[in-house]
Amino acid sequence: MIDCYVKFSSLEQGSMIARQLLDNDLVCSVDFLVTGEVNPEWQRALPACGFYSIDTITSSATWRTIAQAASSRYVLVYTKDDQLVLGYKAIERFVRLAQDSGAGMLYSDHYHIKNHCRVAAPVIDYQLGSLRDEFDFGSVLLLRAAALKESALRMSGDYKAAGFYDLRLKLSQHYAIEHINEYLYTDVERDLRSSGDRIYDYCDPRNVESQLEMEAACTSHLKDIGAYLSRDMFTPDCDKVVCYDGSESQWPVECSVIIPVLNRVRVIGDAIDSVLRQEADFKYNVIIVDNHSTDGTTELIDAYDDKRVVHIVPHRDDLGIGGCWNLGAFSEHAGRFIIGLDSDDLFATPHTLQAMVDKFKEGDNLMAGPAMVVGTYKVVNANLEEIAPGIIDHHEWTPENGRNNLLRVNGIGGPRAFYTPIYRDIVLPNTSYGEDYGMALLISRHYPIDRVWDVMTLARRWDDNTDAHLDIDRENRNNLYKDRLRTWEVKARIAQNKEQSL
Question: pTM of the full predicted structure?
Answer without folding.
Answer: 0.93
